[in-house]
Amino acid sequence: MKSFHVYLEPPAAVPERYVSDYPSDEQSRFRERFRPLAERYRRYRRVATWAMWPGFVFGLLFLARPSPPNPWILGPCLVSLAVCGGIAALSPLPKCPACHNRLDQGFGEFCPECGAQALERAKWLCNPKCAACARTMSRRKSGRHYRIRACTHCGVMLDEDGL
Description:
Shape: elongated
Number of domains: 2
Radius of gyration: 20 Å
Distance between the termini: 41 Å
Strand content: under 5%
Strand order of the largest sheet: 1-2
């Protein structure tokens, strides 16, 4: 018999220390430790984006032909989509080096854009919003529409460019 349990992510661990508890030299070490992880994440996303385009073009060629479509065109399309899926699976968001929570694991007290402790909780049918930078943290089918510069759980600034 199949299981019909709802599998939810485990809640984020409550950080032992917050950004105000770390001295500035330790915060800079966190940024230095996070830099190679962020660069690898960006590189994988860039490769996935470039691998998506041939699949899109060959898919259009496959669908746009008025005569019966050539099955050889479908092969590169499927390979391209498989490469994109594999890269997306291999490039999860890195964990925060300070509190070790996943960066996409819900929202804490801190804004992921500016790092301020001013993130207003989501209300019914509304997304969380930062009172400091006035940014709305929205997620749609096309992905998240905000950059992750700071950890939302402990507030440590991780990357100036953002993920």
